[in-house]
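Thread: quick sanity check before group meeting

JM: Hey all, I'm pulling together slides for Thursday and realized we never actually wrote out the predicted structure for the chain we discussed last week. Dropping the sequence here so it's in one place. If anyone has concerns about the input, flag it before I start.
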Amino acid sequence: MRLVTRISVNTLCALTLVGLAACGTDAPKETGPFADQSGPQVANKALKATNGVTSLRIAVDMTTEDGRIKADFASSLGGDCTGTMSVAGQGGMEIVKTGGTVYTRFDEAMMRAQMKGEPKADVEAAVTMIAGKWMESKASDPDTAETVEFCDLKALLKEFEANDNAAEKKGPSEVAGKPALRLVEKDGKETYTFDVAAEGEPYLLRVTSKGGKEPMTMNLSDFDVPVVAKKPAAKDIVDLEQ
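JM (edit): ok, ran it. Output follows.
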């Protein structure tokens, strides 16, 4: 069963980096974290640090023509991941990927949204059989690939390459209680904001885009924290071949 959403890792990462060709200047004689570095220097340092992790958690809140999409995934370079995804008005789903196997669990609203237009009897039978239970599939299955895009951390990290040339520093900020430095760039009508950790490794903590057709907020956390992905209990997995 294919999740009908338009969200994709590559799209999100493109949004993350699109603003890196915009123009900006730094305020003189500043103090605080990164005071001796330009905006582009800070941005490139953050991109490099983020690109070097072995695991992370990414939470996305994005408004699209299909509705508001929320996704929250913890992913590792080894391929294991766990996460949730929801679409406004269409319910949500849970995902666990361990090795080459993917387990997905739809709530009732998502099941009904996915089967919209099907005969009522088929819909009710599917809801009874599948909603709230785990389905098992291979990660290599074409119908599964779209669902687990957030599990491909290697592909995600490839987008975080240091190529900024003119980020503008906007002063201190805070993300989830952690001090950060805010960078801002513009691309036409869209404004991109990047919050870089001001303590410890200079990871990207938050990326937002506003003013465009699909405004987005992306929070990154749990850098290098091991991802624990476990196969659901056998009793909770539905046998679709019955």
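AS: nice. The radius of gyration is 20 Å. Confidence is low (pLDDT under 50) at residues 1-25.
JM: adding both to the slides.
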